[in-house]
Amino acid sequence: MPVIRKSLLQLIFSGAYLLRWNDKLRPSELTEIDKQAHKMLVACALWHENAAPLPEASRLELAREVIEGGLFDYFYRLVITDIKPPVFYRIKENPEHYRLLTDYVLARLEPLLSPLGSFWERCRAWCRAEEENTPARRMLAAAHLFASRWEFALIKPLNGFDDEMEDIARSFEERLDSFRDIAGVNALLAPRSALAGFANLCGQLRFQIRWTQAPRIPATSVLGHMFVVAALAYFFSLAVGACRTRAANNFFCGLFHDLPELLTRDIISPVKQSVSVLPLILKEYEEEELERRIFRPLRQEGFTALVERISYYLGLEVGSEFRESVREGGSVVRVEGFGALQAGYNADALDPKDGEMIKVCDWLAAFLEAHSSIRNGVSSPHLQEALARLKADLLKSPLECLGLGSLLADFD
Description:
The chain is mainly α. It folds into two domains: 6-193, Hypothetical protein af1432 (Orthogonal Bundle); 222-409, Hypothetical protein af1432 (Orthogonal Bundle), CATH 1.10.3210. It has 20 helices and two strands. Strands 1-2 form a two-stranded antiparallel sheet. A hairpin with a 2-residue loop joins strand 1 and strand 2 (331-334). The chain starts with 5 loop residues before the first helix and ends with a helix.
């Protein structure tokens, strides 16, 4: 079974430090972890549209390839962060040079990822594969280009003096056009389509900084936080032996879990808990706005099944994304706790999704944010209190199989 260690958590979080477009004038800092979150939200939509007609086994395999391929590419990117994209593409054109670079990347990643067992073996195979036109790789490439072009649209107006701008713009359009045969890409590239609007709204979550009452370094966004929770949820799913459907559902649940904060902003827990009726008011408003701004437009353009899937990830049928659920007889059914899900519902046919474990990953991601800032020398009483509260909540978790005690001890 995969072993989750402190080094893996730090690797996942390290994308919060990496600045993108660092040689261009930027309206705000653009980080690698935000870009990866945006990319994977788009990739989820593309996977859903392209997997719909496939047999169940092929659909699940494609989900695994998209999720893990996105993680493999992210980890590769963390190692080669100082290489500009044009230089990287030149290296890829020479098989021998690219092999040498990949060997270097894998040597750096091995001590961090080898405790994950077969995941590490799949990572090595993915990075060394010569085939680049598989469905999963093409969907990830399209999602990558879309998220990068979205960022480029932010900086282009500020860089009129830069003679690279037009070449970069032309390159994005030409490369994205080559993916129009993928289901969903045409809608994604249509400026006024519902799918493009949805992807645009997801991208805006990078502007919502978490912990606004406590300055931090790095100052993580809601979008980046969602990616960290998704990655943690996937690795813990592997660690507890989750079936393929459950592991994929947990990744996408983590990736979408704070989507409603686009509509309400990131309200810290003490404020939510201080007024008894506030959570109910927020939930009602979130669901109304989700329907008005995201779900209804998508349904009107034929993306009804995608809406149903996002609703399932958000736990709308069972009252919260942090409640376990399955599908039985065509209906979404709540399961009472992690133990019951693990013991009796861990089967692909039941479409299981965790709740308590997603909440643990949410807390753990917040713990990483607070701990990293304090370690970097930026602290406050509010941040210290939050760190202590999060650690206490994690240690009280009944999910002993996650090994949270020993994991947190490494952070002391």
